[in-house]
Design a protein that fits this description.
The chain has 202 residues and is an all-alpha fold. 58% of the residues lie in helices and 0% in strands. The N and C termini lie far apart (104 Å).
């Protein structure tokens, strides 16, 4: 039963992660559009500041001192930061191979872009090497995750078995051998009462 559930988890992970190459490709396209729009906004701001003989920071300081546009300073600072972050991510993703993008999910973490891609995302059959690698990784990850979850769930129900006691080996008492009994040597004694015959040796 547990193996069947782990297999389902592995297949689910393989099916989900196999779409990562196609999703990353569509994310890059959408990200390129985001960067283009932010670049246009930043350029317009810098051109306006330059027309007044100011740099970007000087323009922001002047805006902060003007009550009518003071509230826009923080908005523009967030825009500049987002433009710099997304531009860097786009450059790294474009230079990476499809296999290398498997290790760069943190470069595709812009919430607005992810939502926009997911809304229009169409799954594709993973026929590339990157798709096969993603499917294999997803299968192993799904199997391992579900196996760990099942092990965690069933852990309280496992009864700990008492340790087996090692039975001491009984030593049989050594048999004590009785010392050998010396057999008495039978010495033929000549009866002293028999008469001795002269000239006969015994």
């Amino acid at each position: 039963m547990i193996r069947a559930l782990c297999l389902i988890g592995g297949l689910t992970g393989a099916a989900g992660l196999s779409q990562y190459p196609e999703f990353s490709q569509q994310y890059m396209q959408r990200l390129g559009g985001q960067v283009d729009e932010l670049t246009r906004q930043v350029k317009d701001f810098d051109d306006t500041a330059l027309a007044d003989g100011l740099g970007r920071e000087e323009m922001l300081e002047a805006m902060a001192a003007t009550p009518l546009v003071e509230s826009q300073v923080e908005l523009w600072r967030r825009t500049f930061a987002r433009h710099a972050r997304l531009s860097e991510n786009l450059m790294i993703l474009r230079e990476a191979t499809p296999i290398e993008r498997l290790t760069l999910p943190h470069r595709m973490a812009d919430a607005a872009t992810v939502q926009a891609v997911w809304a229009d995302f169409t799954p594709a059959m993973p026929l590339s090497v990157a798709g096969a690698a993603s499917a294999g990784t997803g299968f192993l990850g799904g199997w391992a995750a579900l196996a760990a979850l099942m092990a965690l769930i069933t852990l309280p129900f496992k009864r700990s078995k008492p340790p087996k006691r090692k039975e001491a080996k009984r030593r049989e008492p050594a048999l004590k051998m009785d010392p050998p009994v010396a057999r008495p040597t039978l010495v033929a004694e000549t009866p002293s009462h028999l008469p001795r015959l002269a000239g006969v040796q015994r």
